[in-house]
Each structure stands twice: as C-alpha cells, then as structure tokens.
C-alpha cells in the first residue's frame, strides 16, 4: 500500500501496542486477571478499531496491574514489568554491581503503573506508540518512570467504548509515545465523538499539527504550591524549579498559584474510585464469560468462589471498601461528600485557569523509579495513595495532562514533569510540552543488549510526521 | 368489618413498545428463541456502554402527559445493585433520584353493586414514572439442580408507574390497572398485555383502624391478570385483618399470589432487607428534555425530545373517547365503558351505526347484549367475530324497516353466527321470517286460515 502511495492512513504499517484492558476482537483480553484469563472478546474497543483502520500493526497486548489498580505494574497475574531503563547503560553506570555474587537481576526497577507494559514497550523501541489508560495517573506515572511521553486527554474527548472500566467517571484512554509530536498525531486519530460512548462530547474534533517554532512569551505558567508535597524528592524539586526558570528566562510569565483542595484529593479519590470499582466489578460473576469456579452447590456459592478465585486481593479490597461506602447508611457521608469535594477540586482549577493561567507545571512523580524489591515492601493501597498524589487531581477535574521526560536522576533513571491544561485545549498543552521537550533534550536510552544496532541511530530519531 | 380501613398502592411495570431495548440496539420481541436477542451490552460484556433509546424516552413522556404528570426536564439515571442470574451486570439501570415524570393522576370508574347502572369515578395519584431496564428470565430446573437463564428480555425498556395508596380494595386496584392498560394501549407506549408479561403489577397492602396511622404493609407479587389482582388484594386484606384480630402482627415482607389456591404466600427472603447500594450511573449524562420555549434553532432535532411536540400529538385518551361516544350517540356512560373495554368493540359499534338507519341508542343494545354475549360464550375477540359490522348493520336495517320482527331478527343473528356466508336477507327468505306489511294481504291470509280451521280461534301465527 505504501509503494503506490495509497496508505490506509498515517499509521499504516506502524507497530503499536495496546494495554490489555482494551477489548481486541479475537485476541485474548485479560486485564492481567485470572477472572478474564482466556477471555476472547467479540469486538474491538473504538480506539483499537481506529488504529487498525489506519493500518497500524498491533504487536501485542501489554501487561498492567490487575484491572488497572496499582501504580507499579507489579500486581497483575502475569507478574511485574521491568523498566527497560534497568538495563540501560545510564542506570548500570550509576549502579555498579558491588560484588560478583550480587544478582544484577535484583536491582531492576519498576515501570510505574498501571500502564507499565505500554510504557516499557514504547521505551524499549518495540513499538511507535502504545495505548494505556489513565484513571489516577496510570499513563503519566509510568511514562515519567520510563522516560516517554504520557498523554492523558480531556475526559470526553476519546471514546471509552471497549475500555474495561475502572472508574467510569475518571477513566480515559492514554497515549504513550517517545515524542510529543507523535502523541499529537495519535490523538488526532483517536479523538472525536463516539455514538457508542454517551460521555464523549458531540463537538467535531479538528486534528492539529504542532508548530515547529513556538513562542512562549505570551504564556502564563502556574506553579501550584500545594504540589510541594512532603514525599517529593529533592531531585525532583530541583528539576521542577529549573524547568520553571527555563520558562521564565524564555519570557513566559511564571507565577505561583494555589489549588487549595489538593490535600483532600487522595481521600476523595479513594472513596469515589472504590465505589465505582465495586459497581463495575459486579458483572464478574462467572455466568456469561470469564472464569467460573467449579462450585455447584448454589448460585451464590458459585459467585463467591468465582470472585474469590478470579480477583486478587487489591481488587477484592477495593470492592469491599466501595460497597461499604455505598451502603444506605454511609452514602451521604462518604459518596455524596466525596462528590462535593470533587466539585471543589475541579473548581480550584477553573478558578486558576480563569485568572489568566494557561498551563500548570508540576512534577509527575515523587522520585525516580524504585527498585522492585523496595517497592513491594509496601502494599498496593499505600503505594497508590503515595504515587497518585500529583496526578489524580487532573482525573477528578477531567483535565488534559501530559508527562514529558525532563532529565535523568542521580541514579541514571528518567524523571518527568507534568503539564496540565484547560479542558479540550490539547493543542495548547502539547505545544507547551513540545517546547519544553526541545529544551530538555532528554537522552535516548542506551540499551546494553541491543548489540545489532548502533544506539547513535536512535539519537536523532525523527518522529513519523517528518518521514 | 367496618372498623378496618384497607390501603392499597400499586407498582406497575409496563414494557415499552419499541423496536430495540432501552440502552442497546438488540431487538425487542416476545417468545423468540432463548438468548437470540442479546447484544454485547445486554450480556454485560466488559467495556460495553449504555446508549439511551430515544423512542423509550418519548414513550415515557407520552405516558407522563397522559397521566397528568409534571415532566422533569432533567432526570437522572442510577444503578441499583443486587446479584441475580438474570441480571448480568450485577446492577439494574433505573431512575431512583430524579425520575422522568412525577405527581400525576389517573381517573377510573367503578360500577356500584355490579349493576352497570351506576358508575362512580375515582382518582388515584401517580407518584412517579421512571425508566428502567427489564431483567432476563430464569427458569429453575429443580430436577437437574440448575437454572436456565434467557437474556432476551434483559435490557428491554420498562416504565415503572407508581400509584399512591389511594385505593381500598381489589376492585379499585383492578379498575385502576385496567384504565392504565387502556391508556397505554391507546398511546401505543406499551401493548400492556399481562399474559405476555408486558404489564406486571405488584400490590402494596396494609390495614389500619380509622384515625390511627397506617399499618405495616406487605408487597404482593406474581399477579398474572387483572382478575387475579383483585383476588390477591382482597385475600391479603382479609388475611391481614384476621391476623390482627387474632392478636398477631403483620410482617413487612414480600408475598406471592398463588392463583391455584387463591391465597398469598410468604416469599421468605433469606437476607432480610436488601441494600441496593444506589449510585449514579456514570456512563449516562442527565437526560435533558426540551419544550417549545427552551428549544433553540441550532439544536439537532434528531438528538432532542420536545415535550410540547409530543403533547400536541397525543391521541384521544379513553376518557375523552368515552365522553365523545356518549355525546355523539346518546348512549349511557356505562355503555361507553364496555365499548372501550373490549378491543375493537367501539369501532364495530360506530361502523354499524354508520351503515344503519337504526338509532345508536337501539344499536347499542344489540352490541352489548347480543353481540357481546355471543363473543363471550365462544371466547372470541371482536376482530374474530363471524358476524361483521356490515352484516349486523344489514340485519338491523331489516328490523328498522319492519321487514322482520325483533324475535325473527334474533333468530337471524343466531344463524349468522354459524358463519356460513349467508346474508341476513338470504336467511330471512330461507326461513320465511319476513313480516308482511300489506294490510289487504294480511286480511286475506287471516280469512283463509279462519276458513280452513273454523273452530280454531288461533292467535296470530304470523305475528
């Protein structure tokens, strides 16, 4: 098709990967859970269909935390995902083996999550772009840890039809690429109203190209003071300041702003997330599809055994919490209260964006990627609460946000910074992100085992748009 | 027992008459092969999302308007959670917080003392109408210890009509439901055939002493016909009175009506009170309805439901039709009830009137006495009557023109029922039932008879 100049689309022949919580017709879709092991969906998610219609080549389904619950991609039934940077020259140089006997393997770091598989796939050059999902930061977090671009679009811009939901009111399909321009291209192919998803906006979406030369002097960048959270590493703190100065020196207005309800967002998120999870997981009863326990005593006992066997502890924990919050006697105090707090959090952003700020600049993660052995010392709930803190307010407010690789840490691992924009202003958001990307000049990963390729080939990797 | 006041409220589920289901595109059809009308969404396949069916919204608005409700221009959808084999998603999408219509009323009529001579009009308040999904069907096969699940019905649109406890006995409940049924059928928003499960009624029953607060109520389910509704309600009222008079208490429970035994039986609920953990349905935005004032020119009219547009196109409701029949034809109000009560009877009557010189007031007697009793005897519907309205009109014309006597007419009518394709005139000729009109001829015949049988005084054998 490419030869006679008749490609199906911009992505014809381009390899992509898709997180395993998107339905792919005829291809097993598991959500990294025993509940859906062997489940072969009869339909494609809208976003998957759009990629395939372009001629994109689906290389595979990527690993995740079970049902997208987690911030490390360590809690799925297929096991944890290793961050490709664990095997990079940059990381190994900074973390030499102390002794011969020390297992190199024990030092590998996590990808972040829950879209860790997709981030790793893009980071290690196995594909041009990957789909993730983002509910509390699940695309941006692994993007930051894996040194790739992770875009969370505005809620309602991209169809969720076929994305197995975690929190229907916060989920969005996420886009992971190595460059901001590529993210813009993929966004252009995926965005737009889908009649099958009643939460997508009706307005016609106009795909855009990002400008080559960008003038940021008219921009106002906001630095939310509440994002100086206690666990923030000094490294990330310094990087954040440096970035702010970068914008200032280039002529943009950089001011401190306040999003006062930020401290409440984790708890609010916990209530709303678990409540929706409890509801969304109710369909997994072993009757119509998926795992069914070999329990014939009664329907109830079959349900109970199926759900015990099919779900991991993280999922079951959230279901129990969620059902608790939805009980009649608790509903007002928890669910409704949390909805009100959510409104306040969203209003914080409205006020700030309404006062002349165009883009917010924040860190994406507290620090660089933790070694797996360290990470698993705390449970999923604790980790999620810690790691989501900088990313999930954007999900509460439905705003677009993108993590851009900024620099390497002292340990030779990627650090990303986050930009948050106004609803449906992805063009402006990505333009600013691209400007920053050009300034940051984030290094290419030097993967040691890539003996056949000279890594310098990839140093000046151009994005698809210039091919 | 005059010291007890029974209180009856109703929750009626009417299946919406639409081509496809409430939130998915699969077809709505009665008695299709099991699991042949199930979309991915109906089966709750992960990742599927609900999309609201416009026709179902219109049906609910029509019904709300016909029941004098306020239509909520903004209504919301909620999830009601419970685990059951015929509820694939583990929750039903319904409208618990803000339903589509509220605060209406329904007028219905009863005959006093079963005589059809005195009718009294009563009103029941309509609390609300909400849109919700129907569940699938479970068939319990106890012999093989299994349950068979058919999801054809899962997701079909329902209107739940809640009637306040303004009724006091089985007869009132039955009459109210009958009137609702007629209204739904007239609107076309539901075919409301109870035998096909398109109209399901649950009754809430309690009793109390006048001046005291309402008693504990029970919910009676599994009522399959209007007749059984009256029986079930009356039985339950009696049961509660007897229980209380004997010093017992009434449990707030669900009971099933056993039509064979004619009684209600406790459906012992193992878990006690269910907490449905209601939660807003996050995949459906609020349902916004418009009227002539709020509608703007730039709106896509395909995406918009206009209440005023629907109101302007409402057909004549049964009460209006009855009033018109009474006014047009001078028949009694109770006659108009019977006419509308039988499917097609009013049209039949009107057609006969159109084609005969006989006055409507006389025609109605033939319709309600002769025709209807023949139909009932043979359990036939009006549309299956072997005697068409044209044939009856012909017959009545003969009678009106005094070509036959009224007893002869009845004989002819009986013959017509055999459905042998003969016209009334042919039967009259065949059986020599003509009345002689000519005075002279009559005199001649009489004389001949007298002459032939001189000692016979003979009552008018030609009379």
Automatic annotation (TrEMBL), chain A:
This is GATA amidotransferase. Keywords: ATP-binding, Ligase, Mitochondrion, Nucleotide-binding, Protein biosynthesis, Transferase. Residues 90-109 are annotated as: Disordered. GO terms for molecular function: ATP binding; glutaminyl-tRNA synthase (glutamine-hydrolyzing) activity; transferase activity. Residues 5-430 form the Amidase domain. It comes from the Eukaryota. Gene3D superfamilies: Amidase signature (AS) domain (3.90.1300.10). One of its GO terms (biological process) is glutaminyl-tRNAGln biosynthesis via transamidation. Residues 90-107 have a biased composition (Basic and acidic residues). GO terms for cellular component: glutamyl-tRNA(Gln) amidotransferase complex; mitochondrion.
Automatic annotation (TrEMBL), chain B:
Pfam families: GatB_N, GatB_Yqey. Residues 347-462 form the Asn/Gln amidotransferase domain. One of its GO terms (biological process) is mitochondrial translation. One of its GO terms (molecular function) is glutaminyl-tRNA synthase (glutamine-hydrolyzing) activity. It catalyses: L-glutamyl-tRNA(Gln) + L-glutamine + ATP + H2O = L-glutaminyl-tRNA(Gln) + L-glutamate + ADP + phosphate + H(+). Keywords: ATP-binding, Ligase, Nucleotide-binding, Protein biosynthesis, Transferase. One of its GO terms (cellular component) is mitochondrion. SMART domains: GatB_Yqey. Belongs to the GatB/GatE family. GatB subfamily. This is GATB amidotransferase. It comes from Eudromia elegans (Elegant crested-tinamou). The lineage of its organism: Eukaryota, Metazoa, Chordata, Craniata, Vertebrata. The gene is Gatb.
């Amino acid at each position: 098709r490419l030869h006679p100049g008749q490609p199906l689309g911009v992505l014809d022949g381009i390899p992509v990967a898709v997180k395993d919580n998107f339905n792919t017709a005829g291809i097993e879709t598991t959500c990294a859970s025993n509940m859906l092991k062997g489940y072969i969906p009869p339909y494609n998610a809208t976003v998957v269909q759009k990629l395939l219609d372009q001629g994109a080549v689906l290389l595979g389904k990527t690993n995740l935390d079970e049902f997208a619950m987690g911030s490390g991609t360590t809690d799925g039934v297929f096991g944890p995902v290793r961050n490709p940077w664990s095997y990079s020259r940059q990381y190994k140089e900074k973390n030499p083996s102390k002794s011969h006997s020390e297992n190199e393997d024990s030092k590998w770091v996590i990808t972040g999550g829950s879209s860790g598989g997709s981030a790793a796939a893009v980071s290690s050059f196995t594909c041009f772009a990957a789909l993730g999902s983002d509910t509390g930061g699940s695309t941006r977090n692994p993007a930051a840890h894996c040194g790739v671009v992770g875009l969370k679009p505005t809620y309602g811009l991209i169809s969720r039809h076929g994305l197995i939901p975690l929190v229907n009111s916060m989920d969005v399909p996420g886009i992971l690429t190595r460059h901001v321009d590529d993210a813009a291209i993929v966004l252009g192919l995926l965005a737009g109203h889908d009649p099958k998803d009643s939460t997508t906006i009706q307005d016609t979406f106009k795909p855009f190209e990002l400008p080559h030369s960008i003038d940021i002097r008219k921009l106002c960048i906001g630095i939310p003071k509440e994002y100086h959270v206690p666990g923030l590493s000094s490294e990330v703190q310094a990087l954040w300041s440096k970035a702010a100065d970068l914008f200032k020196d280039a002529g943009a207005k950089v001011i401190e702003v306040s999003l006062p309800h930020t401290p409440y967002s984790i708890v609010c998120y916990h209530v709303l997330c678990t409540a929706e999870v409890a509801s969304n997981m109710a369909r997994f009863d072993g009757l119509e599809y998926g795992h069914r326990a070999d329990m014939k005593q009664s329907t109830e006992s079959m349900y109970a055994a199926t759900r015990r066997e099919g779900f991991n502890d993280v999922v079951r924990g959230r279901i129990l919490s969620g059902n608790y919050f939805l009980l009649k006697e608790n509903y007002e105090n928890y669910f409704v209260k949390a909805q009100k707090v959510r409104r306040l959090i969203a209003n914080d952003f409205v006020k700030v964006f309404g006062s002349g700020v165009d883009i917010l600049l924040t860190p994406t993660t507290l620090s660089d990627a933790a070694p797996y052995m360290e990470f698993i010392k705390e449970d999923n709930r604790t980790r999620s609460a810690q790691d989501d803190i900088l990313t999930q307010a954007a999900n509460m407010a439905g705003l677009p946000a993108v993590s851009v690789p900024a620099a390497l840490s002292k340990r030779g691992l990627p650090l990303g910074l986050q930009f948050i924009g106004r609803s449906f202003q992805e063009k402006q958001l990505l333009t600013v992100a691209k400007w920053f990307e050009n300034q940051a000049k984030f290094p290419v990963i030097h993967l040691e085992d890539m003996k056949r390729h000279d890594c310098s080939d990839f140093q000046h990797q151009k994005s698809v748009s210039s091919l | 027992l005059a010291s007890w006041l029974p209180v009856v409220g109703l929750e009626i589920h009417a299946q919406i008459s639409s081509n496809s289901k409430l939130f998915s595109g699969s077809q709505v059809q009665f008695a299709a092969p099991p699991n042949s009308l199930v979309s991915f969404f109906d089966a709750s396949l992960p990742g599927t999302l609900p999309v609201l069916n416009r026709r179902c919204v219109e049906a609910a608005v029509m019904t709300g308007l016909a029941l004098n409700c306020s239509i909520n221009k903004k209504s919301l959808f909620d999830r009601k959670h419970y685990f059951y084999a015929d509820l694939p998603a583990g929750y039903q999408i319904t409208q618990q917080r803000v339903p589509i219509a509220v605060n209406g009323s329904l007028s219905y009529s009863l005959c006093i003392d079963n005589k059809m001579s005195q009718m009294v009009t009563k009103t029941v308040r309509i609390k609300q109408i909400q849109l919700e999904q129907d569940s699938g069907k479970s068939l319990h096969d106890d012999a093989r210890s299994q349950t068979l699940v058919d999801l054809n019905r899962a997701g079909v649109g329902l209107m739940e009509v809640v009637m306040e406890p303004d009724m006091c006995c089985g007869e009132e409940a039955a009459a109210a439901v009958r009137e609702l049924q007629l209204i739904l059928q007239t609107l076309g928003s539901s075919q409301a055939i109870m035998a096909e499960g398109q109209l399901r009624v649950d009754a809430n029953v309690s009793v109390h002493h006048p001046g005291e607060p309402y008693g504990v109520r029970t919910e009676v389910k599994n009522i399959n016909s209007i007749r059984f509704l009256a029986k079930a309600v009356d039985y339950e009222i009696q049961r509660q009175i007897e229980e209380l008079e004997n010093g017992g208490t009434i449990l707030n429970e669900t009971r099933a009506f056993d039509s064979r035994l004619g009684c209600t039986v406790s459906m012992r609920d193992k878990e006690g009170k269910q907490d449905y953990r209601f939660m807003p349905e996050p995949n459906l935005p609020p349902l916004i309805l418009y009227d002539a004032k709020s509608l703007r020119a730039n709106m896509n009219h395909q995406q918009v439901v206009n209440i005023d547009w629907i109101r302007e196109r409402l057909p004549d409701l049964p009460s209006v039709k009855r009033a018109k029949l009474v006014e047009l034809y001078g028949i009694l109000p109770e006659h108009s009830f019977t006419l509308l009560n039988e499917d097609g009877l009013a049209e039949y009557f009107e057609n006969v009137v159109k084609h005969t010189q006989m006055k409507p007031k006389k025609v109605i007697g033939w319709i309600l006495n002769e025709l209807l009793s023949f139909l009932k005897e043979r359990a036939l519907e009006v549309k299956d009557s072997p005697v068409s309205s044209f044939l009856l009109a012909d017959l009545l014309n003969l009678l009106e023109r005094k070509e036959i006597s009224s007893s002869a007419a009845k004989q002819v009518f009986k013959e017509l029922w055999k459905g042998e394709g003969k016209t009334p005139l042919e039967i009259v000729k065949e059986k020599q039932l003509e009345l002689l009109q000519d005075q002279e001829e009559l005199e001649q015949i009489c004389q001949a008879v007298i002459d032939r049988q001189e000692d016979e005084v003979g009552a008018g054998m030609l009379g």
